[in-house]
Structure formats: C-alpha cells, structure tokens
Amino acid sequence: MRRLFWMGVGAAAGAYVTRRLTETRQRLTPQGIGADLADGLRELGAGLGAFGAEVRAGMATREQELTDLVERRTGGHVPSYSEAVAEDEPARPRGRARRAGA
Question: Which of 8, 20, 87, 100 is 20 to 30 Å apart from 58, CA to CA?
C-alpha cells in the first residue's frame, strides 16, 4: 500500500514538473516573450489611464474648492474657463493683411 502511495506521489510530481517546464519553455519563445510584453504594456496603459483619471478628478475638486474660496472672499462670481472663453472676444482679421503697395 505504501509503495502505491509513493508511486502516485511520484507520478503527480512528475506531471507537475513536466507541465511547469512546458509552460516555461513556451514563455521563452519569441511568441511567448511578445505576449508577455504585450500584457505588460496593456497593464501599464491601464494604470496610466487610471492615474490620469484620478489626477483630473483631484484637479476638478481642487479647482472647485479654490473657486468657492475666492467667491466667498470677494463676494463676486468667478467665471469658469468655458464662460471666460465664451465672452466677447475681439474680432481677428482673417487671412493676410494687404500691404499698401502690393
């Protein structure tokens, strides 16, 4: 009975080692390295996107805090960027200006 147990343990260990070696050999091929690199770049891109979203959310929150503080201290309205840009801008001439002698 004991020999049968150890034979089963040896077979299981052999199957495990064989499987791990096959996986490692596959990862060391050019296709496997490319797949690992692609996965790493995909994760990096997702992390950078999440970081950017967190930074933008923090910026919006801080901008609102500063706007509230300025409005509270001055008693006036602080326009947002889109409100400030939408105000009447001086008309810009289109095209090139012609010179007098041309």
Answer: 87
Distance CA(83)–CA(62), nearest Å, equals 18
For residue 85, how far is the Cα from the chain centroid?
Answer: 29
List C-alpha distances in Å: 74 to 62, 70, 77, 78.
18, 6, 8, 9
What pLDDT shows up at residue 88? 61
Q: Which of 83, 18, 96 is nearest to 26 (CA)?
A: 18
**Is residue 89 left, alpha or beta, with left meaning phi > 0 and alpha meaning psi from -120 to 50?**
beta
CB of 66 closer than 8 Å to CB of 78: no
What would the pLDDT profile of 44-66 be if each residue is shown by its tens digit? 999 999 999 999 999 999 999 99
Q: The whole model's pTM is what? A: 0.52
